[in-house]
Amino acid sequence: MGKDEVANFQRAFPGTEVKQVSGLTSGAAQAVTQIRQARGAYDFTLAGGATAGQLQAAGLTAPFDPTRVPRLSTVPEFFRKAYPYGMPIDLGKVGFGYRQDLISERPRSWADLWALAASRPGKVTVLRYAEDVLSIGLLHTGHSANADDDAALNQAVGALTELKANLRAFLNTDFSKDLLTGAAVAAVSYDYDIAAAQRKNKDIVWVAPTEGMPGYLDGWLPLKGSDNLDTVYAFMNHHLDPRVYADFINTTGSAYVLPDAEPHIDESIRTNTSLRYEPSSVASVEFATYRGPEGARRRAQAIERVLGA
Q1: What structural domains and CATH numbers belong to the chain?
Q2: What is the pTM of this model?
């Protein structure tokens, strides 16, 4: 949410209260479990494409009616088509950052990152979000980030196990902290996180690996059993007011999906090459998708073999 977003909405709709519930940050399976266990308690949720697809398959979502969000038409069609479950709100890409003042290497690919970790044990960190960890392993071994066949998954697990042996840590939070202190020379993280770190240290370089990047397209989707869908749709439309949306982007530092908000978005975000919206900037990104129950099971088991070992 934007810093002032909820307060502004509640002033516009007197008597309305927006209650935010934390969670949903460790993986799609955990997010679906949390919502299923509290079925009917939530009105809408934030979810990436993989989680949204799984929620829909589990019968936990309400049908989304785009006509009830008039401002949705100002979001580029590319994003609307890629997120049919609800309203797309932001996107992220997984690449890595490195400290050009601490190393002589200039990595440009996932293969380069693997080599850097091997040559500098204990000096590379990786975010711990399960789907993204698996996806970088798949891309590194020449597969789609969304692959779910056993052969591809086994190759990814082998590569990630090799990488893990040389890592400083898998990190649940503060993905760039060690990069900023110099305890790590490279960090696999999200575009917004590296962009924020760059504002603190100009020697941090963002890399969009040549093999491609996993990505997420986040959105809000209504949940089955809600008695407040009129308010949910009103809040969605409010979110896409350019000034309100800019507050959201300026608060979170995310890559954005609403070009009309650019005049109100901080210059440090709208001019950052990893965050600015350009059609070509997402050409090498594979957004996470739900691969069905068997695909999800195989992928979950694969990443557990790496993270749980």
Answers
A1: 5-91+215-287 (3.40.190.10), 94-213+292-307 (3.40.190.10)
A2: 0.80
